[in-house]
Amino acid sequence: MLDLVLISVCYYLAFRLRFEGESLENFFPFFRASLPIVLGLKLASLYVSGLYQRSWGTFGLRDLTAVLRAVGLGSMLSVLAAAYLYRLEGFSRVVFILDAMLLTAAVVATRASFRTMNLVAATRSKRSRRVLVYGAGAFGQLIVREMRANPAWNLNPVGFIDDDPLKSHQWINGVPVRGALEELESTMHRLSVDEVILSSPIINGSVEHQIREICGSLGRPVKRLHMEIR
Fold first, then answer.
1. Shortest CA distance to 186 belongs to which of 147, 222, 218?
2. Model's pTM, two decimal places?
């Protein structure tokens, strides 16, 4: 239903942007006559391109590729239909270009908003535990993405702690690096952290001992990410 509205509005706006005043009145009958065909072809293109089999709570680059493929196919079929049925009389190539651009922006914006709403809901949920991830490397980024994609965990990543000075105070996957080991205790106080997760097996020895001492003094559990293929 959302895409029906988006396709209709974008197609109409393309005509509005291309034609004005009396010109729009002259070309509006062609818009009205072709709208059902365009709706059918573009909805079919969105379906065939696999857009409705995707989880928009984790919208990413691959999903953007699917959107571009779907809109491109739908626009191409619309042009072919207009050429076959109307010999393109009463149509403008600019209309189809504008329509494709508007529809791409609209589909991407609405799908990305689903992810944003998921993140906001997880962040504001009173049941979510506030988690500090120690280690902002590949494993740390992986677990943060999984926390956000899996609301059943009820975990809200509020920051990274990482000893690499190049990562200090950067934002990684939308989560800030709060500092190094020296900032762990103050960060836990300031952000009301419920638990700390060690994201990498190389976080061990004296570093792990210090982390557990700090968390133990605050009564906060320390967990470790384990990855296995069995």
1. 218
2. 0.54
